[in-house]
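Hi V.,

Quick status before I head out on leave. The structure for the redesign project is tokenized and pasted below; the design run finished overnight.
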């Protein structure tokens, strides 16, 4: 066996790129958001500051301001804890954003791993 080899039978070395940093996302509440977009700007009191962090909707992959610090602002699903702009903006650019589409194997024990209760919603 060659001692200079970088391969080892026990370990696989993965080289990954560093995450992209300093990416500035622009959402509907940013002051620089263009008015000619397909979605209308939601009229709220909130406007993003220049250093505002953003999160992405898990449905349409569009940014929205990260307002997790405010307990009165809801942006994520209470069940899966994923972020959805339909919860925050009450509308999403993707049609049927919050429809539930479960595979048949998930429907068996959907409600607390209880097949009797899960059968009711099928």
């Amino acid at each position: 066996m060659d001692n200079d080899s970088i391969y080892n039978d026990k370990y696989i070395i993965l080289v990954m790129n560093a995450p992209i940093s300093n990416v500035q996302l622009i959402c509907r509440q940013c002051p620089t958001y263009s008015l000619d977009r397909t979605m209308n700007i939601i009229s709220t009191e909130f406007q993003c500051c220049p250093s505002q962090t953003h999160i992405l909707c898990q449905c349409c992959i569009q940014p929205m301001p990260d307002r997790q610090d405010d307990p009165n602002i809801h942006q994520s699903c209470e069940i899966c804890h994923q972020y959805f702009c339909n919860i925050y903006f009450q509308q999403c650019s993707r049609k049927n954003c919050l429809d539930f589409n479960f595979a048949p194997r998930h429907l068996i024990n959907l409600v607390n791993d209880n097949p009797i209760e899960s059968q009711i919603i099928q």
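Above is the designed sequence. The two ends are 59 Å apart (CA to CA).

G. will cover questions while I'm gone.

Best,
W.
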